[in-house]
Amino acid sequence: MRTETAALVIGDPATVESLERMFERGRYDVMFPESFGHAYTDIKRLRPQRVILCTTLEDADLLLLLTMLRLDPATCDIPVLAVTPYGSCDFAGIDNHSSA
Q: Tell me, what's the pLDDT at 73?
């Protein structure tokens, strides 16, 4: 199985627990941007195959990051998954490669 890179941007640390199973399988090398302030720059520079935003839907900073990623031609094609304490919202049509 090919390993891909996923950028994990943490807005709500409680939601990270729900992602542990996905990362345990070894499918993704996970990168953590230095800080929220560096997230956009790091994602643009490193070009991960996925971006995962751990957020509440009311988190204006992460919604701004999502907007910036969608509007930038250099990052608009990177699938983004927003995970919230209430479930997840698929903002980019992430393909499902479940190996259940």
A: 95
Dihedral-angle region of residue 16 (phi above 0 means left; psi in -120 to 50 means alpha; beta otherwise)? alpha
The residue-averaged pLDDT of 13-39 equals 73
Closest CA to 28 of 81, 76, 64, 65: 81
pLDDT in tens, 62-92: 888 889 999 999 999 999 988 776 655 555 5
Distance between CA atoms of residues 2 and 56, nearest Å: 31
Number of alpha helices (DSSP H) and beta strands (DSSP E) in the chain: 3, 5
Phi, psi of 55 (to 5 degrees): -155, 165
Q: Could you name the CATH architecture of 4-90?
A: 3-Layer(aba) Sandwich (3.40)
